[in-house]
Write a structure and sequence with these properties.
Length: 172
């Protein structure tokens, strides 16, 4: 088991150290995020997707500064939205987000494209100071509010959970 560097320690819900935490680094354009999230669809969601139901995902990053005297100060709250759909005629999966749409031959490729984040500018350079410690939380969630109403109230007993989240600390 490798030990992460002291500048970036990942925290999980069970207290274990995550193998490869997302990375926030400072660049000329601002603070950028790189992450690889493992997004998996259960058979219920995969079947719904195959039958023409588009799935919407929200990727959200929050960065806060811990304070001993009050609640943590939330400094960054950035999000992206993705739409995953399947087109039976072309037998392709389509991922749309931020005005860009790309087609993929397999579901695995489409899910990897949603979970792979590179160079996402989440804050301007002056927003965070390199010499301070921050706590970050990255969440990738299925937007259940954009599903048809019968699926929102879960009448069919399907498992609609796809939530992926990471918490870690970074800074000096």
């Amino acid at each position: 088991m490798t030990t992460p560097s002291p500048a970036s320690v990942a925290l999980s819900s069970n207290g274990a150290i995550a193998p490869a935490p997302p990375l926030i680094r400072r660049d000329d354009s601002g603070w950028e995020l790189d992450a690889d999230l493992d997004l998996q669809l259960n058979p219920t969601l995969e079947q719904a997707l195959q039958r023409g139901l588009p799935l919407y995902f929200t990727l959200r990053l929050t960065v806060s500064k811990p304070r001993w005297y009050w609640l943590d100060a939330e400094l960054v709250d950035a999000h992206r939205e993705y739409r995953l759909s399947y087109h039976a005629l072309t037998r392709q999966y389509r991922v749309s987000g931020g005005g860009l749409g790309l087609g993929y031959a397999t579901l695995g490729e489409a899910l990897r494209s949603i979970g792979s984040v590179r160079g996402w500018v989440v804050a301007d350079p002056a927003r965070l100071k390199p010499e301070q410690r921050y706590r970050a939380r990255l969440e990738l969630r299925l937007d259940r509010g954009r599903l048809p109403k019968p699926f929102q109230i879960n009448l069919f007993g399907g498992d609609w959970s796809t939530d992926t989240d990471h918490e870690w600390e970074f800074g000096a």
